[in-house]
Amino acid sequence: SPAGTMFRKTHGGVEHEVLVQERGFTYQGCPYRGLSGVAQAITGQVWNGFLFFGLTVRGKRKGGGEVPTGA
Description:
alpha+beta; 4-stranded antiparallel sheet
């Protein structure tokens, strides 16, 4: 997604917003290298970030293309 895109995810009754940067993401004012780190900050558990934010469909990213290993 292009820089400036905002992802929103409701978890635990709270809406969380993540801003896409040119290199990484910002969540609650803190920089993250990947969505998996953001998902872990939100849930307290290890998650695939693309899966947590609903950006994958059956092993592929929405819009096409394989999900890279470790995403």
